[in-house]
Amino acid sequence: MEMEKKANGVSDVGAWGMNVVSSVGIIMTNKQLMSSTGGYAFTFATTLTGFHFAVTALVGFVSNSTGYTASKHVPLWELLWFSVVANMSITGMNLSLMLNSVGFYQITKLSMIPVVCVMEWILHNKQYSKEVKISVLVVVIGVGVCTVTDVKVNAKGFICACVAVFATSLQQISIGSLQTKYSIGSFELLSKTAPIQALSLLIFGPFIDYYLSGNLVSDYMKTISFGAVLFILLSCSLAVFCNISQYLCIGRFSAVSFQVLGHMKTVCVLTLGWLLFDSELTFKNIMGMLVAVGGMVIYSWAVEVEKADSKATLVVQNSLTEEELNLLKDGMEDHTVKLGESKETQVFEI
Fold first, then answer.
1. Rounded CA gap, 133 and 139, in Å?
2. Secondary structure of the chain: what % helix, strand, coil (to 5)?
3. Which of 144, 240, 244, 250 is the most buried (most CB within 10 A)?
């Protein structure tokens, strides 16, 4: 039993480590790919996401064809519904970043934690302890301090941000729900949804990117450099690991845990941006990161306390059930004895 727990712990750490490394790596890669100063000025984020899911779908197809993974049945309407929600999340985030300031965009990302909590409470009647709520608040404050600067928003940007937060929260909750409902692994679910997302994003992505940037991806492809091709391939390769690890993490943890621990990536991105791209790192940034990390530590402790309390409650319930069964068994034995005695009395009297 202890060996199994250790193996599960190692798997959890491995899944989370893969997500952090791949997510931070893809952000650094895309920053170089999309930068107009010193980069390759590839400003087509939605189309690039379509490339990501196309490569992920190809990996899933090869894995299923070679028998490495087994394909389980999931109703097509559920896959289509999930893909629509996921694409709304991607498009909404891109539009929110374009229409709003970076500060409001960061607030949008921070608001996902309480939104996910409320949605899980509504959809799954999930309860959270006081310690978990406090730790979530500390994480939100810490990340807010180190990332939020100017806050400017307009009506269109606010609507896009609301759609993005709702769709992203619903998508992350749905990943765990679908895996539980159909007893399907994270990679198997991803291999089923990736082709649908890839096809839809590659069809509509260029139009969305044209609206966002005013440039056509077809014009860019005519003069694309070898370096840009390499960075696009690197971005797609990292996206495969990022997508797989996201499904793994949400399947193993929860949507709230994924959001809270996900802010560790924000801290890593800020640190690497300072080291690699000479980004400014102020005292305010450092203090915010320390508060955020402290909140993540408190959250991990609060979740463990919650698990220990639930196990203790389960043990008490089980022990009470056994006691009740023993009492019931004793009662049946007494009833059998009395019944036997009454029969003997009846025979004697006759």
1. 10
2. 85, 0, 15
3. 250
